[in-house]
Amino acid sequence: MSRLILSQVLLLIEAVSIVALYQLFSDFECRQTDLFLVCRAIRLGMVLGLCLAAGLALLLFFKPTLRQSFVEKSETPGPTARRWGLLHIAGIGLIAAPTLLLSQSQLVEFAAFFLSDLAVGGALALLGAALWLMPGFAWRALFKDHARLLGPTIAISLLIPSMAWIIGLAWNWFESLQLATFFSVAVVLAILGNDVFINLEVQTIGIQDFFVEVAESCSGIEGLALTTSFMAIYALMMKDDLRMGRFWLIVWPAALVLSFILNVVRISVLILIGAYISPELAVNGFHSFAGWLSFTLLALLILTIVNVLPGLSKTPKSARAGDHLPLTQDTAAAFIVPFLAFMLSGLFVHTFSQTPEVWYGVQVAAMAAAVWMFRKPILALTRDFDLIAIGAGFVVGLGWIVTAAPAEPYASLAGFGAFGLAIWVVLRVIGTAVLVPLVEELFFRGYLFSLIDDGSAVRRALAILVTTAGFAALHSRPIAAALAGLIFAAVLLRRGRVFDAIVAHAVANALIAAAALATGQWSLI
Fold it and tell me: Fewer CB within 10 Å, N or C, the chain?
């Protein structure tokens, strides 16, 4: 057994064991402590780690050249590999120790120690596993050799929690999906001979004396996001050999249906466990990494099946050799990474603050750093300014302002002094009028649009639909944002230049920022 296979098997066993330990045999939850934000940070780190590991596993499974390179670099362990292996074991021990040695009340009482232990243990386990597998210089060489594939895959993997978060914010839009979930669970439970109680007003379902609230965290929305994201990674890897039309129009909907069915089965089983075996065990299963883990494994299973289905692959093309540009000069990475920085920083501030608008500077800093890193390929996109694009931006901005409902100023800004408020306003205007248009247009009208569009009418219409829907999902006013997205797409198509879309978006946002500055209604943005 190679070191690569051994490491994958061991890490999967460890992940399942840790999930079982904390989700099935512990009822500790973040809200039980005064360190809620710290606890959420650790949870977010674990979810990001799971998504990243799954994304890399996809690459290793479906890309033989990358797998061969990985095997070659990992088969000969470094002189300190044994020490790193011991460090990994120590980290796993630290993660497991609290729930084995402390009672539930002690976990809450000594939450600071408990959470610190988890954070340190997780860091040691990750570092030890990576350097046991191969030395740091080998990791750097691997990434340098395969940056074009590893970069986008890492980016999409790290965006998965953000996608789930965004879809979770839109949960109330999906009333039909909510009803389908509830009634499907009810049918399953009724077929098994149970009298089912449903209250849609409070999103509650149950049997006998056990009732649960099926809200965002256990709705299955995250499963749809996970399935879609991993399929996007697969499509990116296999874009030269995959029939995209069949993949997205047939396989993707089928995968979403399977994800929906899995969630219905999961909820039904947990309700049965709560009613007939253990309420505590069932509740812990609802609020779980087990859900993330099960949906991730389902997505990987679906893609494994997809890989052998007939009719999805084109005639294999010979590999094309070419020089590898540095990652910071790669156009695809320049389109993706700033958006990744924007999304992750947004997820961070919304996770750890009840007033995320106060910390907008964090997002500005993240976007600015990413844009600066990829400044060469971004600057290469600049062209002459188009009056039509500028006019389109004015139309979008004016429409956004006129159709906005009256809103109260941010109460959270009242505590700022004059200097602090001035700094916040400057950062808000820079972020809104410069960075956000650049970052969003690079990703939606630059990367995603070109990935879908092949010049045909059908694919172009699909590109417009997908990018507009994604753009709308990011905004609190989806209809207005969708109309803006359509206009930006038209500006892009007029001359085939993403720079024109960036200009139009920047003009629109600058006009909106000016209105917000004049009225103090920052919720306009």
Answer: N
